[in-house]
Design brief:
Blueprint lengths: L1 H14 L10 H20 L1
């Protein structure tokens, strides 16, 4: 799991070298948003 995150971060860091000050992992944000959406859907069903 750790290795996958490191690879994703390295890829994102290459892409985000212009935005040097901001180290935000877009992939992590997307996964978090997706998780929140899934949880809210489950709550509505219950």
């Amino acid at each position: 799991m750790k290795m996958k995150i490191d690879k994703a971060e390295k890829r994102d860091n290459k892409r985000n070298k212009q935005q040097h000050g901001m180290r935000v992992d877009n992939r992590s944000i997307f996964v978090i948003q997706e998780t929140v959406i899934k949880k809210s859907k489950k709550n509505k069903e219950n």
